Amino acid sequence: xxxxxxxxxxxxxxxxxxxxxxxxxxxxxxxxxxxxxxxxxxxxxxxxxxxxxxxxxxxxxxxxxxxxxxxxxxxxxxxxxxxxxxxxxxxxxxxxxxxxxxxxxxxxxxxxxxxxxxxxxxxxxxxxxxxxxxxxxxxxxxxxxxxxxxxxxxxxxxxxxxxxxxxxxxxxxxxxxxxxxxxxxxxxxxxxxxxxxxxxxxxxxxxxxxxxxxxxxxxxxxxxxxxxxxxxxxxxxxxxxxxxxxxxxxxxxxxxxxxxxxxxxxxxxxxxxxxxxxxxxxxxxxxxxxxxxxxxxxxxxxxxxxxxxxxxxxxxxxxxxxxxxxxxxxxxxxxxxxxxxxxxxxxxxxxxxxxxxxxxxxxxxxxxxxxxxxxxxxxxxxxxxxxxxxxxx
Length: 393
Description:
There is one protein chain. This protein is α+β, with helices and mostly antiparallel strands and 393 residues long. The protein has 2 domains: 7-274, no CATH class; 320-378, Winged helix-like DNA-binding domain superfamily/Winged helix DNA-binding domain (Arc Repressor Mutant, subunit A), CATH 1.10.10.10. It is 22% helix and 24% strand. It contains 8 helices and 18 strands. The strands form 4 sheets. Strands 3-4-2-1-8-11-10 form a 7-stranded mixed beta sheet. A hairpin with a 5-residue loop joins β1 and β2 (55-64). The longest helix has 21 residues, at 87-107. It starts with 6 loop residues before the first helix and ends in a 15-residue tail after the last strand. The relative contact order is 0.19.
C-alpha cells in the first residue's frame, strides 16, 4: 500500500531556509546528509484532537545551547523568525496545504489546513529539564483529520502504509477538554500520563520505530456535539493542554500544538517524521502560499472557531482497530485460521497482515504455529495440537 504522507519529500523545501545553530563551518553538509541529531537534540510532534474531528498539529524542535555564542546565534535567529515571514515558515504553510489536500484525495474526506502559528524562543528547562535550549515551534489546524460516529472520535486512516518515527523523536497525542482516551494502538511501547488510559492526559510513542498501516490509531470518547458547537483551543492551561498550546508547562507564551505528519518533512534536517515509501510527487508546485498569519514573539495559541461539515456516518466495522478485526475474524471462525485466509478475508496485503500478526503475537493477543507451509493463527485456548492437522479453514 502506498504511503499517504512522505515527510522526506517535503523536507527538501525546508532545508535551505532552516538554520544551523552554533556552527560557523563553510562547508555545510548537503541536505541529504544533515541528520536530526546534528541540528536538534529532541523533536516532538503533538496532536490535540477535538470532538469535531479537527486537530491541532504542532512541531517542536529543541537544541542545547551550550555556549554564549550559541545562545547569541539562536537569539538572532529567533528574532528574525518571529518578526519576519521567513522562507521556512512559508514552506511550512505551503506543505501543510499540500499535505491536507493529498490526504483529502486519499481518504475522500474533506480536509483543510489553517490557523498557522510559529515561535522561536529560549527555554531554560527544555523537554528534559536539564539545560538551556533553543526552541522552534510551528503549528497548524488540520480540519477533517479525524472522523467519528456517535460519541466516538477516531484518527489513524491518514497514516496509510504506516508511519516512521526516527531517533530522538516523539509523537504525543492529547484529547481536547471533555474527551478521554478509549483505545490507542499499538499498545506496545506507548506511554500514558495517568493511572489508566481513560484517565490519561496524553499518549505518546518514542522513536525509532515503524508503525503498521493506519497506525497509530487512537479512539476517543467524546461528549455529544450540537450543530452550533465550536472548538476552542485553550490558552489558559488545563489538564489536557499540551506543551506550547498556551499553558505553562514549557513557558508562559508557548504557542504550540503541532502538525506532525508530513509537514515535517525536513529530510535530514531536524525533524523528520517519515512515511518511508510511496510518493506524493513533487511538492514544489506553484500552489500559492496561504495568508494564514503566524504569531509574533509574544503570540499565543489562537482561539479557533470551527464549523466543520457533517461527516457521513461510520459503521461499527470501520471503527474497529486492525487488531480487533483480526480477533473478530478468528472468533467467527472457531478461534483459529490460516494466515492466508486472514489476508483473503480482510483484503489487506500479505506484508501488512504479517507485520500486524507479529505485533499481536508479541503483545500476547494471538499465537502463531507453523504447520508445513502454513501459519496457523489462534486465539488463546484455540491452538491446534502440534501433531494435529493444519486446520481446514
